[in-house]
Specification:
Shape: globular
Number of domains: 1
CATH topology: Rossmann fold
Bound molecules: fructose -6-phosphate
Number of strands: 10
Largest sheet: 7 strands, parallel
Distance between the termini: 13 Å
Structural class: alpha/beta
Helix content: 25-40%
Radius of gyration: 16 Å
CATH architecture: 3-Layer(aba) Sandwich
CATH class: Alpha Beta
Order of helices and strands: EHEHEEHEHEEHEHEHE
Amino acid sequence: MRIVRAKDYEDMSRKAGDIIAAQVITKPDCVLGLATGSTPIGAYKRLVEGYEAGDLDFSQVKTYNLDEYRGLPGDHDQSYRYFMNTNLFDHVNIDKANTHVPDGLAEDYEAACAAYDEAVAAAGNQDLQLLGIGNNGHIGFNEPGDAFVRGTHCVDLTESTIQANSRLFDSIDDVPRQAFTMGIGTIMAARTILVMANGEVKAQAVHDMIYGPITPACQASILQLHPNVVLVADEAALSLC
Ligand code: F6R
């Protein structure tokens, strides 16, 4: 795992945004695995600026997002589809038909999850997979547990994730209790994985990801087995390393 130290959120966003931009420049028809949450917002802004400056062309890029809340339609302002549209897709020349987020309303969700994995594989897998990390070490919504789940699946969110994500909802009762997430096998199929982390609240998870035992109790620890991971993190997130 290569560690890129950043001073603060702005610096992390610039560095990570530039790594994604380099991917788009060097392979214009690349497949990007994307994440939501507070962490990547600044990096997406950097990509929008790159597009506006005429440096980036997204017309051939395909994207597959990590996850979506179960039960939220794509036009709900807390859905991850809405997040991606408003933070990135609406502001660059990407073809929305080439952007994919798990369907939060899928009724036959097992079939929908299997189809999602097949679509990622049929696209040739992710050239670059962007990840944030949960305070509890989750990646995507793969929560701490006793197994690593291979494919896209439905998860029960842990109390700590519901608590952490409630900051974005009117009330904690509004936070969905389940989500669909790419599995660990789908994530690990990416040729490059770019992890971003900022803030002291992530310090323990970042430490365990890099130096802890490889265990499903810290799902991010599996990244120790991937040959091409870059972590871009600020000083606070690296404070226990
Ligand atoms: C989001 C995702 C999650 C987040 C993680 C960190 O698509 O898959 O794993 O990356 O919960 O969230 P933030 O960035 O809000 O701290």
